[in-house]
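Hi V.,

You were right to ask for the full record rather than a summary. Here it is.
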Amino acid sequence: MKFAILVNEGPYTHQASDSAYHFTEALLRAGHEIVRVFFYHDGVNNGTRLSVPPQDDRNISERWSALAQQHDVELILCVAAAQRRGLLDDDEAKRAGKDSNNIAEGFQISGLGQLIDAGIQADRLIAFGD
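Predicted structure:
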């Protein structure tokens, strides 16, 4: 079965990101296909490479990055939500006149069309968070 995942909440403030990660990981272990993971609203904060959680805590951004690399899963940050929250890739940083990017490895910035496309391609779209 093909699944699309929508994450609407940021890391460390809500259980949604952890739940989405563990659900996605379980789907992959069970042999299902992940069409795309789309991060929207505060969920885009999962894609920062600048978070530094305490050593005894999980690093949610790194977990998502490793999952994407291991399983070739697309991690998409909504461009409008990302820009509002100061998350920029190289292209968006140049366009905005900023001197650097802060997107974690494996994440990409794109528009809501990627969410629509994921919903069309998938058998199920599962949303985590409000």
